[in-house]
Every structure is written in structure tokens, then in C-alpha cells.
Design goal:
Layout: H1 3-12, H2 18-30, H3 32-35, H4 40-56, H5 67-81, H6 94-107, H7 110-126, H8 135-157, H9 210-213, H10 216-227, H11 235-246, H12 251-262, H13 277-306, H14 309-315, H15 318-328, H16 334-348, H17 360-363, H18 366-369, H19 374-395, H20 401-415, H21 422-440, H22 445-468, H23 470-485, H24 518-521, H25 525-549, H26 574-589, H27 608-618, H28 621-635, H29 639-656, H30 660-663, H31 665-702, H32 705-714, H33 721-728, H34 735-745, H35 747-760, H36 767-780, H37 788-806, H38 811-829, H39 835-842, H40 846-855, H41 860-870, H42 876-884, H43 886-893, H44 900-914, H45 927-946, H46 951-974, H47 979-990, H48 998-1009, H49 1014-1029, H50 1035-1058, H51 1071-1082, H52 1098-1116, H53 1124-1135, H54 1140-1156, H55 1161-1172, H56 1180-1190, H57 1210-1218, H58 1223-1234, H59 1248-1258, H60 1266-1294, H61 1312-1328, H62 1341-1345, H63 1351-1363, H64 1377-1385, H65 1391-1410, H66 1419-1430, H67 1434-1441, E1 1444-1446, E2 1449-1451, H68 1454-1460
Antiparallel strand pairs: 1-2
């Protein structure tokens, strides 16, 4: 009796116990690859398929733990594993199997029916010939399922009252824990008491489960692929079915949306009145799959659909349906939301984009687009926003102004977001830059200009952030380069030899749980930031060109147009200048990135302008290209603007790099003229001021008449004022004190003094002085590029100063005229011109200056002018007066009415200037001031969000909010113990009342995280834990505190301890801190299920709690020993949540516990299996570290349980055999296997065949992804390592020098067909790589310069050479037919073809060097050589005759090998 006869008898015998039959089926499934290869497959099908069908015809079973169910699911698994290629042996059984499976879908349980549908779809994919006329059974099944969807939706979603089921949990209700149960909170129970068993629940019927019904659209899609040309397919009927599903809506959801609309809000998520959340999630998934089917039908039958009236009518409602699906999608259903975005993108890619125009605003709402799920936020944002960016890009010219504003706001925020990676930021930047044209076309030019300036501001912020990250980027780039070379497994445990070195940037991500792996992404922060910078610079100049079309100042005509106005952007306000200054300096400073490889001591610059000049002159091409574009941007500013931006740096840069004048000719020429102008002003202003002081001093000393006569006599028209002052020999005096003293002691003298002073006047100070100051400069610049009209206007403004001196006015009106004149001068000739000179003279009239300006602070230019005065270092007297009267600003603002906003903005600006000087900080200690700032700032921020501010105030308001953040931070620096204020401010930021800015994180880092006081740390941490435990605090605040303060403090403490030699040093993580964490986090249950619905962001908080736990277990596990049970329970509870990242993070925490504590074997086995079964790409970066953490413990499981039927190899093998067709499911297993060759060596026979069969599925040639290339190369290397150990072990055994202590001395020889398959794939893989091996001859140097081989190239060729060695696989026949076929159909002039040919020749060289005799028996190899000889490409010819070096192995040329074998002469 054959093996198959025996198996068939055991499965079919009525006398066989069900347990025996299920065991036989299990063995078949576990060893299926041995039965389905070669000629044995036909006999296997003949003997066993009828038995399988007969077994499955029995009555369905609905108890998941029953032996009958185990048998049925195992047989279905075998059917799923069978090869179904056509032509092939399976063809004979296709019809019978399909008919059986269709019947099972209708009657069986949920689990079995789901697998039946997978098998049906798999058969339909391969057996199109056999199923060509079998359409009707499939249509009948889908019709039935469509009908059931409607019925089940009404039954399960409309008629059930809510019950207690934790949202997003996969555990049934009865398995949840409470606060006082041993499982969730008591540390008195033993760790062995942890109960991992779940109660046995009946399996749902297939036709009552959305898990099964949701596959209906997928079956329909498969039907269309097989039967698209069939007349029996009624696309109109299919569309109506899809429409009916999409129009369904659960009544509780409908009511929730209606109530929200009535209140003017939106509702997202799952209504509390939904009784069965799991069913609702399945229902939404079914609708999304129906939408995906519609998108598919549009792709294949757009013309047919658009002819249907019902379809065209439905298109108008489709966008609203899409929005409803986005709102209704449960937050834990990240895969469903991802599929929904993909479906939307598919529809958008057709001609139906404009139907979404009205929904753009809703799509830009993060609550709708992303929902509240952690996995969506962490892993899927790029997909969502790129889909939306595609839509907006194509309809941008049809957007309404509010939609443009919202788009700019959202993608500005995305531009600053580092976490999703550079591509996300680049996509955001490109959309913003592409939006510029449509923004400039807006009818409201003030709005258009504001949006363009806000884009520039965001880019400036991004450049600033990248500059701040520069040291960290350089550090990480070097680290990632080192890691890319090091192929050893990552080590996730703490080691004294690997001291952490977290800085200002990465301290906030120092926690052990990483949602992405930079090694997998090939991240290089320096290269990434360069890429982003170049992408932005490329299109940035266009915005400045468009700003001219959005000029909103006084009308510009031929008589008042500024010079170079036709070529430059002009008319910038003070606030806009701040934006451009930030952008320009940050952009210039970015070119440090091109010096990351240079020694710091050799950096040849002292400021940004000098940095530009140096790189412009001596930089490489890589940096010169973006630099030239950047300089072109700077030159599109008006010269006056450019001078204002770099005024303080020009002198030094020009002195050190004279060539600067060649780069910026016009601005440098104008700068020199400005210096000349300032010299004249400085001379005369100083003289006028000295004259003023001397007049009062002499008048006080000697009376009124004589001194004025003396002064008048000394000063003659046209003479310099400086000599007259020197004649009097009077020192500078305090004018204010002199006036007050005279006024109080001799009032009559004071009045006469004022009158006489008015008479003598900045006479002395006549228009001739004004002319002497301006006319020479005007004459000198008459023929220069500097604009004439600017000086004419400035001269007229200075006439006002003259009038102030001669008009007989008292001091305050004179101050007004002077200030107005100075403001006018600076608006014309630049704001850097006279401020420095005039500032110290204003100090002698501080009260008059303040009195006048504070009364005008309701006007933007006066408030701005006061703030500019106050921020000058020499303005101490004026600051003193303002500080003394600071409450005037607050009191007056309450009654300002319409001017309240500008008053608040200007007042914040004034206080921002004051807070820069530590000596003037007392005013910040007043509670009323901080309270007023908080209130005013929130009002301004709210007005900005609501877009209710006048256009001219928006930018000032944006900057006021940034200034307000600085004020608050300064307050906290001065008063570090004001924790109430700190936590209140953090709450405002976390809840979105204030925008989070970098200065806040800098304060947190330098003043909290880097604080030297352990007690201060404890106070902050304990306060943070109290906030975490509070039910009244928002989840966003809890997340902010844990992520930005508590966790980084713990990380910083780890750094501190690692650098201290004494173990007795003060500790942050002591008994009190641990106990607080224990009681507030680890012993707390998940809480009331309905609480989740009212707490947006709760999963983000959970993630930070998991991060804190992982950090403590990793670095402080010894102190946690007595709490280990509660920590494990905490992790197990969170691992039951359905959010993918939360589940993965919880498994990481449990894995740290397994690595450090003695954990029951059943927990380790459960976690091990759960990790291997994880199929989501979003969790892979979490799964792999968790597996690495428990890997050292796995050998202990081998003998832990007697007669263990679940050894460590069983779970990975089962997953590989059952899910061989699901590549994503198998990748995790293979990634784990390749890192642990020794762990699975004894059981390699259970994996090698599976590895070989999976190679082509994982990396489909010729264009696999980088990650898949790396994985298949590692898989083939794993096979080589096992073979090497087998061969080397045998060799050493024969000489009694055994290198490996293998317990199993029997050898497993890989079947010949499997070795041949792997060798052939490796050869094809090598040829497909995008680089080729460098040539050794001198003639090839030019080619080698532009071609640097990748690690994959070198490793694949080395591997091929090693495997073909005679003592390994030297007997394997090599098939080059696929390679030849690719080359024959390729274009010899194409670079890709040349690349493939070069690699093919290298493969041939390896074969020829290792097995030279094979050349005569390989006609395909001869064909390859003939093709290369006929090529005109010089590199191919060189390769044919050149020798090669493959990882240190010298290879003869193909030509020489051929000559030796007399293949050619």
C-alpha cells in the first residue's frame, strides 16, 4: 500500500476517530510541499481530493474548538495550499472543488467560509480555461450575498441596544478585566496565575458575518477578470448592487450625523448607540470594498458606465458617500481607511475629479480624513495627504478662496512634520509651490499676498528647522551608513558598551518602541534634507515673481516706481521683511549641509553672506547648482530689501570675500552709498543733539540771553555743527533731569527757557543743514542705480524734522513730527538706515516718546516703531519708562473697541521686545500681565483660525502668536517654579489653542530635561503622572506631557546614570516614582468602554504609556521585579486592542519582560506565535524588535514542556505553509529566519523548500523593491549558511576537529530541483540589479567613476560563486533561458539593456571560472557570448576581455576561458 493509499484510508474510514483524522490532515498540511512537487502531485490529487470533498460535505460545525472544525479547516487549508496552475493536474478537479466551495460559503461558519472564498478566488485566477463557461454559479452566489448584506446590516446595526464592548478590542466581553481583579491590578497573585485562555464562543454563520459578506465585491472583481467578455455580465445590474450597498447607513450613525449638523459641528467615529461595534466595522469595510469595486469597473468599463443615466445621477451623491465613510470608519480599522483612500485616488485619477470640489473643505479636516486612530496617524498619513494633494493639484484652478486658504494651512503644517519622512514634506512643499499660480489669480490680492507670504514663512521655518537639526542629521547619517554595512541583528537591550547619546533632537524619540526602522528605509538625514532643499529652491523664485502681481500698497506709476521694480519684488511691509529675512538667512545657512564631511576647523566663514560667497566661488557642482538658484532668489528682492536683510553682515563678508560684489553688484553698490549717507547723518545728528544739550545747560548756568547769542554766533549757515559744539566744551547731560529741576524750582525761568529755545532752534537748525545732508548724496547718486525719488521723498520727510524745530511747538508734538518723519524715511530708504543713530538720542526724551507712541499703539506702524525702539540694546531709558507703565497697555486695551486686535498685537510685540533684556523682567512677575497675555493670545489665535482678522493684520497676528510663545518661555525661564503656569500653558498648546513652536521644545529641553536637579525632575514627573491619571484632562495634554517631558526626562536620566561611575548617585527612578507609575498606569484597567468614544487621541496616550513602560523595563528592570505581573498584564490588555501599532507596541513591552524576567512558557509561546502571524506592514518595525528580544529565550522552549507539540519551528512553518500565497504574511517569518540561522539549522529541512518557492513571489523580477531585494538575498544567503555548516561540519567530523556541535548527525540534502531553482533565480536576480561590477582594466576607469556597485551586487555574485563550488552545488544544471529572452527583446542602445548585459556577462564569467567545462554544453551561454561580441558598446567589449575581482576573488576573462576551451580563436 502506497503512502497516499494509507493516508486516504485513514481520512476516509468511518471507523477512524475524528482526532486521528484531524491529525492526519494536520500532517498533510505541515508537509504539503513534499507531496505537490513533481510526479507525486498527480497521484496525491487522485487519491485524496475525493476524500477531501467527501469530508467537507458533512454538516457544518459552529464550535471553534471542536475536532470536527479542526478537521474541516485543515482540509480547506490543504486545498488553499495546492498548486492550481493551468495547465496542470488540478484542472481535473476544478469544477467539483468550486461547486463544493460555493455551497460551503452559503452554509458554513465564518472561519471556513472566509477560507473557501480565498480558494475560489485563487482558482478563478489560475483556472480560467476550465471555468470559462461556469459563470452562472458565481453570479448566483454574489446575488445571494448582496441580498444578505442589506438584511444583516438592518438586523445587526439598527435593532440592538448598546452593550459593554471595549471599542477596538478583540477580546470578548467576558474576558475583560476590572480594576480590582487579580488579572488587571493585584500584585499579590503569582505571575503563573495569568490566564491567557479565552472563553469558547460559537462561530458566526457565514451569511450573518460581514467578514464573509465583505468578500462579495472581491468575488465580483474576480468574475470580471475571468468573464469580462461574457454577455451574461450585466454591468448595469452590478452597478445597482454597488449603489444599494453604498447607500446603506446604520440608523444610530445617521442620527448622530443629523444631531451634529443641527449643532453646527461634525460627528466622526462610531455612535455610542451602535450595539455591535465589531459588526459595524465589518459593515464599513464591506462598503469600502464596494467602492473599490466601483473604481475597478470605472477602469475597465468607463464608457459603458457613463452611458447609464443612473450612474451619472449617482456620481453627484458619491462624494457625500465618501465623506460619510471617512467619518464612520472606526479608528482601529486602519486597513479599511487605507483601502478607502486608494479607492478615492482611483476615482480621482479618472475624469471625475471635479465632483469632489465641494468636499475639499471636509477632506482637509484631519478629523474626517484621518480619523482618530494611532496607526493611521503614524503610518498612513503620507498616503492620505498624497491622495488629497493629487486631487487638489488637478482642481486647483477651480478652488474657492476659503478652500485655498485651508489647503495652504494644512500643507504648511504638513511641511513642518518630520515624522512621516522627507517624501511627505517634499510632497507638501511641491503642492504649496504649485498652488502659487492659482493663489496669485485670486480677486482679493490682499488675501493672495498673505497666502503667498505664509508659504514663504513656512519654508523659512522649514529651513530653520533643518539648520537646527544639522548636528543631529550628521550624527545619524554616519550611524546609518555604519548600520547599512553591518548586517548583524539589531540589539535592543541596554549595554554598558553602547552608551546612549541623545541630543536636543532625538531625545524626544529616544524611547525603545520605534514605529519605523530607518535601516529598512535606507534613511540618510543629510541626503534627505538636501533633496528637500533642492526641491523647494527649484520653484521658489516663482512666488516672488507672483508677489509683484499681488502688490497691495499705494498705486505704482512711472513717477514713483522704484528702481529695478520691473525685475524685482518690492513693497514689503515690516512683517513681510521678517519673513523674508528668516527665509534668506536660513536658506543661506543650509549650505552647511554640503560641508558635513569637512573638518569643522576648516569652515571658512563667519556669517551667512560669507558662506554664500565661499560656496559660490569654490563649491562643487552638487552645491553650486542649488546655490545659483538660491542667489537668483535673493537677487529678485529689491536692493533696498536685500540690504535690510543682510545689512549687518555685508561689511565683514565684503572684507573677507571681495568677490561678493560680483555676486550682488547692485546691492553692494547701494550699500556703499548708504554708508556714505549714514556718515553725513551721523555727523549732523550728533551736532544737533549736542547743541540741544548745551543750550539748556548754559541757560541753567548763566541765564538766557548770553549763551544763546554765543551759540548763534558760533554757528553759521553751511558750516558743520561739530566744531561749534567743541568750542563750548560741555559734556552730555541728562536733559530730562535738567528740565524737571528747572520747572519745579523756577517755573518762570522754565517757561522763558522753552520760548527762547524754540527761538534759537535741531535758527541753528535750518534748511541749509538739511540740504547739506541730502543734496550731496543726491548729486552723487544722480547717475547711480539708486532711485532718485527715494531721496526726494526722504528730503521732504527731513523737512518735517526742520519744521519741528522751527515751529515753536512744545516737546511732545515735536516728537510726533520727528517719529513720523523717521518712519517715512525708513519706509523709503530702508529700515536699517537711521535707527541705530537716532536710538541713543531718543533716550533723552523717553517719557515723551512713550507718551506719544502708547497713545498711538492702536495704529500698527506706531506700535511696531515702539517695539523696534525697545529691542535695541541702547534703548534702556525708554524701556525703563515702558516697564514702569506696562499696565497702561493692558488697561487701555479693554476699551479699544474696533482697534482691540491691533492694540493686543502691538502690545504683545512691545512685551516681546522687553523680554529680551533680563534686567527688565520684573514686569513679567505680575499675574495680571500673564493672564492678559494668555487671554489676548487665545483671542488672536481664535480669530486667525476663524479668518476674521483684517487682511493687513493677519501676518502681524501670526507673528504676535510666535512672540507670545517667546514671552511665556521667558517667563518660565525667570520663574522656573511656577509649575501651575507651565502646565496651564502646555495644556493650551496641546489642545490647539496655541500653535506648538520650536522655542517651546527648546525650553523644555534646556530648562527641564537638562535640568541638573533630580528633585526638580521628580516634581515634574510626579506632576505629569497626576495629570495622566486625571479624568478631566484631555488626552492630547496627557500625550504631550508623556511624549515631550516625562519620557525624555527618563531618557536623560539614563544618559546621566550611564556616565556616572558611582552606583550610589541620586536616582530619578526610585521607589516613589515607580510606585506612582505602578498605581497610575500599570494597575489601571482600560476603563469604561464608552469613555473611548469621548476621548479623542486616547490611543496616542496609550502609546506614550507603553513607551514609558518599555523604557523602564529596558533600563530599570531590576527595580521592577515585584511589579512584573502587573506590567505583563498591562501589556497583554493593550495587545488585545485592535489598533495595529498599539498591539505591536504592547508586544514589544511584553517581549522586554520576557527578555528580563522569568515568564511562563505559555506567555512566551503565545507572544512568539502572535508576532509571527502579524501580517500588517505598519507593524513590521515593531514586530521585528519584539522577535529579536525573545529570540535568546526561544531555545529554552525546546525542552520546557515534555512531548511539546509546538516546537519553535512549528509556528513559522505553519504560517509559511498556510499563507504561502500571502506575501505580506510570510515576510515577517522570513525576516526572522534569516537573522537566526543557527536557531533553525536542525530543522532546516522544514524551511528550505518554502524559501526557494517564495523567492519569486517576494521579489518579482525585473523590478523588485529595495526591501524585497534585500530580503530574498538574505534568504538565499541563509540557505548558503546552512549548506556551509552542513559541509564544513562533515569535513571537520572526518578529521575529528568538529567546528559545530550538531545534535543531528544525519544530513538533509536539498532536492536537486530546488537547488536548480534557486541558482537560476539568483542568476536572474543578479542580472536585474541596476549597477554592475567595476572593471579592472585602465580603459574602464571612466565607466567605473559613474558606476559604484551596490552591496546587493557584490553579495549576489559572491553567493553565486560560492554555491557553484564543486563541493556544494557544482552538479546543478543552470538555465539561462530567461536571461537570454530578456536580452533578446531589449534595446541594445538603452542603458538598462547595457546594464543587464554587463551583469549577464559577469554571471557567465562566474560559471565559466567555476565550471569551465560547462561552456561546451551550454548553447545559451554561447548565445550570450555571441550577443556581447556583436555589441558596439565599449564597456561590454571591455567586460568580455577584462578580468574581474568579486569580493577579493580574481576571475579570468570570458575570452581567455573560451580560448583555453577552443570555443573561439
Amino acid at each position: 500500500m502506497s503512502t497516499f493509499d494509507l493516508l486516504a484510508e485513514q481520512l476516509s474510514s468511518a471507523n477512524s476517530d475524528v482526532n486521528i483524522r484531524s491529525e492526519v490532515a494536520t500532517q498533510l498540511s505541515d508537509n504539503i510541499e513534499h507531496y505537490v512537487s513533481g510526479p507525486t502531485y498527480t497521484e496525491f490529487l487522485k487519491k485524496l481530493v475525493p476524500i477531501f470533498i467527501n469530508c467537507l460535505k458533512g454538516p457544518p460545525v459552529f464550535i471553534g474548538t471542536s475536532l470536527e472544525q479542526k478537521l474541516r479547516i485543515c482540509i480547506l487549508t490543504i486545498l488553499y495550499q495546492l498548486p492550481k496552475n493551468s495547465p496542470g493536474p488540478f484542472e481535473l478537479y476544478t469544477e467539483d472543488v468550486v461547486n463544493l466551495l460555493i455551497s460551503l460559503v452559503r452554509i458554513d461558519n465564518e472561519e471556513n467560509a472566509s477560507l473557501c472564498i480565498k480558494i475560489i478566488i485563487d482558482i478563478m485566477r489560475h483556472q480560467t480555461k476550465v471555468l470559462g463557461d461556469k459563470l452562472q454559479p458565481f453570479l448566483a452566489l454574489t446575488d445571494y450575498m448582496f441580498d444578505q448584506i442589506n438584511l444583516v446590516a438592518r438586523d445587526q446595526l439598527d435593532n440592538q441596544a448598546p452593550h459593554n464592548s471595549t471599542p477596538g478590542m478583540s477580546l470578548p466581553e467576558s474576558s475583560q478585566t476590572s480594576d480590582n481583579s487579580p488579572q488587571s491590578g493585584s500584585s499579590t497573585a503569582s505571575i503563573s496565575d495569568i490566564d491567557l485562555e479565552q472563553p469558547t464562543l460559537p462561530l458566526p454563520k457565514a451569511m450573518a458575518s460581514f467578514k464573509v459578506l465583505g468578500e462579495c465585491p472581491i468575488i465580483v472583481q474576480s468574475i470580471f477578470k475571468v468573464y469580462q467578455s461574457s454577455d451574461s455580465l450585466d454591468i448595469n445590474l452590478i452597478f445597482l448592487r454597488i449603489k444599494s450597498i453604498l447607500l446603506l447607513q446604520a440608523k444610530p450613525q445617521e442620527q448622530a450625523h443629523s444631531a451634529a449638523a443641527t449643532n453646527g459641528t461634525i460627528f466622526t467615529g462610531v455612535s455610542p448607540n451602535i450595539g455591535n461595534r465589531r459588526a459595524f466595522g465589518g459593515f464599513i469595510g464591506t462598503q469600502v470594498k464596494a467602492l473599490s469595486l466601483l473604481a475597478y469597473l470605472l477602469r475597465i468599463s468607463e464608457e459603458q458606465l457613463t452611458k447609464l443615466t443612473e450612474f451619472n445621477d449617482f456620481l453627484q451623491t458619491l462624494p457625500d458617500i465618501v465623506i460619510r465613510l471617512l467619518k464612520d470608519c472606526p479608528r482601529e480599522k486602519s486597513a479599511v481607511r487605507k483601502e478607502l483612500w486608494i479607492a478615492i485616488r482611483s476615482i480621482v485619477n479618472f475624469n471625475f475629479r471635479r465632483i469632489f470640489l465641494k468636499q475639499i473643505d471636509e477632506l482637509l479636516d484631519e478629523r474626517i480624513l484621518l480619523g482618530d486612530g494611532l496607526t493611521v496617524y503614524e503610518a498612513q498619513r503620507p498616503l492620505a495627504y498624497s491622495m488629497l494633494a493629487d486631487l487638489i493639484h488637478h482642481v486647483r484652478d477651480a478652488l474657492e478662496p476659503p478652500q485655498i486658504r485651508k489647503t495652504v494651512e494644512v500643507y504648511i503644517k504638513n511641511l513642518q512634520d518630520n515624522s512621516p519622512g522627507t517624501s511627505f514634506q517634499t510632497m507638501s512643499a511641491k503642492l504649496l509651490l504649485n498652488m502659487a499660480e492659482c493663489i496669485a489669480k485670486m480677486p482679493n490680492k490682499a488675501d493672495a499676498r498673505h497666502y503667498l507670504i505664509m508659504i514663504l514663512n513656512a519654508i523659512g521655518d522649514k529651513f530653520t528647522a533643518m539648520n537646527r537639526e544639522y548636528p543631529n542629521a550628521v550624527k545619524l547619517s554616519k550611524l546609518y551608513v555604519q548600520q547599512s554595512v553591518d548586517t548583524s541583528p539589531d540589539n535592543y537591550l541596554a549595554h554598558k558598551e553602547q552608551l546612549p547619546d541623545w541630543d536636543e533632537i532625538d531625545i524626544f524619540t529616544a524611547t525603545p518602541i520605534k514605529t519605523s526602522n530607518p535601516r529598512d528605509r535606507g534613511a540618510d538625514p543629510v541626503a534627505d534634507n538636501k533633496f528637500l532643499f533642492k526641491a523647494i529652491i527649484k520653484d521658489l523664485k516663482n512666488i516672488f515673481d507672483l508677489l509683484k502681481a499681488c502688490y497691495v500698497g499705494s498705486p505704482i506709476g512711472p513717477t514713483n516706481a522704484p528702481a529695478h521694480g520691473e525685475d524685482t519684488s518690492y513693497g514689503f511691509t515690516t512683517e513681510e521683511i521678517q519673513v523674508i529675512r528668516k527665509l534668506s538667512h536660513a536658506g543661506a545657512n543650509f549650505f552647511r549641509y554640503y560641508e558635513s564631511d569637512k573638518p569643522a576647523a576648516k569652515l571658512p566663514y563667519t556669517n551667512d553672506l560669507e558662506l554664500i560667497a565661499n560656496h559660490y566661488i569654490s563649491g562643487t557642482k552638487e552645491e553650486k547648482d542649488p546655490l545659483k538658484e538660491f542667489v537668483a532668489i535673493l537677487l529678485c528682492f529689491h536692493p533696498t530689501t536685500l540690504l535690510e536683510i543682510f545689512y549687518d553682515q555685508i561689511a565683514t563678508a565684503l572684507d573677507r570675500v571681495p568677490q561678493l560684489q560680483e555676486i550682488f553688484p547692485t546691492p553692494i553698490q547701494q550699500y556703499k552709498q548708504m554708508i556714505h549717507c549714514n556718515r553725513f547723518f551721523n555727523i549732523h545728528a550728533k551736532g544737533w543733539f549736542y547743541l540741544l544739550l548745551c543750550s539748556f545747560r548754559v541757560a541753567q548756568r548763566d541765564g538766557l540771553g548770553r549763551p544763546f547769542q554765543k551759540i548763534s554766533f558760533a554757528v553759521k549757515p553751511g558750516l558743520s555743527m561739530e566744531p561749534s559744539v567743541k568750542m563750548i566744551h560741555v559734556k552730555e547731560l541728562d536733559l530730562e533731569k535738567g528740565l524737571l529741576r528747572t520747572q519745579n524750582s523756577r517755573p518762570a525761568l522754565y517757561n522763558r527757557l522753552i520760548r527762547c529755545f524754540q527761538k534759537i532752534l535741531f535758527t541753528v537748525w535750518s534748511s541749509s543743514s538739511i540740504k547739506r545732508y541730502f543734496n550731496p548724496t543726491y548729486d552723487e547718486t544722480r547717475n547711480s542705480p539708486y532711485q532718485h525719488e527715494q531721496f526726494r521723498g526722504s528730503s521732504r520727510s527731513c523737512q518735517k524734522i526742520d519744521f519741528a524745530a522751527r515751529s515753536g511747538l512744545i516737546m511732545e508734538p515735536s516728537v510726533k513730527i520727528v517719529i513720523d518723519a523717521v518712519i517715512d524715511v525708513e519706509e523709503r530708504v530702508g529700515r536699517t538706515t537711521f535707527q541705530t543713530i537716532l536710538n541713543k538720542h531718543r533716550n533723552y526724551f523717553p517719557r515723551e516718546v512713550f507718551s506719544f507712541l502708547v497713545g498711538k499703539i492702536g495704529q500698527q506702524k506706531y506700535g511696531r516703531f515702539l517695539a523696534q525702539i525697545l529691542e535695541h540694546p541702547d534703548s534702556g531709558p525708554v524701556r525703563k519708562v515702558v516697564v514702569e507703565n506696562i499696565e497702561v497697555l493692558i488697561r487701555s486695551s479693554e476699551d479699544m473697541g474696533a482697534e482691540k486686535d491691533i492694540w493686543a498685537i502691538n502690545s504683545i510685540h512691545v512685551m516681546h521686545s522687553l523680554c529680551k533684556f533680563e534686567g527688565d523682567r520684573e514686569w513679567m512677575g505680575e499675574n495680571d500681565i500673564i493672564t492678559w497675555l494668555n487671554k489676548s493670545g487665545k483671542n488672536i489665535a481664535a480669530d486667525l483660525r476663524a479668518n476674521t482678522l483684517p487682511p493687513h493684520l493677519r501676518l502681524a497676528a501670526e507673528q504676535a502668536i510666535e512672540q507670545l510663545m517667546v514671552i511665556f518661555i521667558k517667563f518660565m525661564e525667570y520663574y522656573p517654579t511656577a509649575l501651575d503656569a507651565l502646565f496651564s500653558f502646555i495644556e493650551s498648546v496641546a489642545n490647539g489653542e496655541f500653535r506648538q513652536t520650536r522655542p517651546l521644545l527648546q525650553y523644555i529641553y534646556y530648562y527641564i530635561i537638562c535640568n541638573d536637579s533630580i528633585e526638580f525632575w521628580k516634581t515634574i514627573v510626579m506632576r505629569g503622572l497626576e495629570v495622566y491619571a486625571s479624568k478631566s484632562t484631555s488626552q492630547r495634554t496627557k500625550t504631550f506631557l508623556l511624549h515631550n517631558i516625562v519620557n525624555p526626562i527618563v531618557a536623560r536620566d539614563v544618559m546621566r546614570i550611564s556616565k556616572q561611575e558611582s552606583p550610589k548617585s541620586p536616582r530619578l527612578v526610585d521607589k516613589a516614582v515607580i510606585e506612582s507609575i505602578h498605581t497610575k498606569i500599570w494597575k489601571v484597567s482600560l476603563g469604561d468602554p464608552n469613555d473611548d468614544l469621548t476621548q479623542p487621541g486616547i490611543d496616542h496616550t496609550r502609546m506614550e504609556a507603553l513607551q514609558l513602560t518599555a523604557m523602564l523595563v529596558k533600563y530599570h528592570h531590576s527595580i521592577l521585579y515585584d511589579m512584573r505581573q502587573d506590567i505583563i498584564n498591562f501589556g497583554l490588555a493593550y495587545s488585545c486592542l485592535e489598533d495595529i501599532i498599539i498591539k505591536g507596541a504592547a508586544n514589544v513591552v511584553i517581549s522586554y519582560c520576557i527578555a528580563h524576567f522569568e515568564i511562563p512558557v505559555k506567555i512566551t509561546q503565545q507572544v512568539y506565535t502572535s508576532l509571527l502571524e502579524s501580517s500588517y506592514g505598519e507593524s513590521r518595525a515593531l514586530v521585528m524588535p519584539a522577535l529579536e528580544l525573545i529570540a535568546p529565550v526561544l531555545p529554552n522552549l525546546c525542552n520546557a514542556v515534555p512531548d511539546d507539540r509546538n516546537p519553535i519551528w512549528a509556528a513559522p512553518r505553519r504560517i509559511l505553509t498556510e499563507e504561502m500565497q500571502d506575501v505580506q504574511q510570510t515576510i515577517v517569518v522570513f525576516c526572522f529566519l534569516v537573522k537566526h540561522a543557527d536557531l533553525f539549522y536542525e530543522n532546516r529541512d522544514k524551511f528550505i523548500i518554502l524559501i526557494v518557492k517564495s523567492l519569486r513571489a517576494i521579489a518579482q523580477l525585473p523590478n523588485p523593491s529595495n526591501q524585497s531585494k534585500q530580503l530574498v538575498l538574505q534568504m538565499m544567503t541563509l540557505v548558503w549558511q546552512w549548506e556551509q555548516r552542513r559541509v564544513e561540519g562533515r569535513k571537520y567530523l572526518s578529521t575529528e576537529k568538529c567546528k559545530f556541535e550538531d545534535s543531528n548527525t544525519s544530513e538533509y540534502n536539498i532536492p536537486t530541483w530546488a537547488r536548480a531553482e534557486m541558482i537560476n533565480y539568483l542568476a536572474e536576480f543578479t542580472v536585474s540589479l541596476r549597477r554592475y561590477l567595476p572593471l579592472l582594466s585602465a580603459d574602464a576607469k571612466a565607466a567605473n567613476a559613474s558606476n559604484q556597485p551596490s552591496a546587493e551586487m557584490i553579495n549576489s555574485m559572491s553567493l553565486l560563486h560560492s554555491l557553484l563550488h564543486p563541493q556544494y552545488w557544482g552538479d546543478v544544471d543552470i538555465d539561462l533561458s530567461n536571461i537570454i529572452e530578456i536580452l533578446l527583446v531589449g534595446d541594445p542602445t538603452d542603458d538598462k539593456w547595457v546594464n543587464s548585459m554587463m551583469n549577464a556577462l559577469q554571471v557567465a564569467r562566474i560559471i565559466a571560472n567555476v565550471k569551465p567545462h560547462i561552456l561546451k554544453s551550454m548553447p545559451l551561454l554561447e548565445k550570450l557570448l555571441e550577443m556581447s561580441q556583436k555589441s558596439d558598446n565599449s564597456e561590454i567589449c571591455v567586460c568580455l576581455y577584462d578580468e574581474a575581482d568579486i569580493n577579493g576573488l580574481k576571475m579570468k576573462s570570458l575570452w581567455s576561458v573560451g580560448v583555453n576551451l577552443e570555443l573561439w580563436r
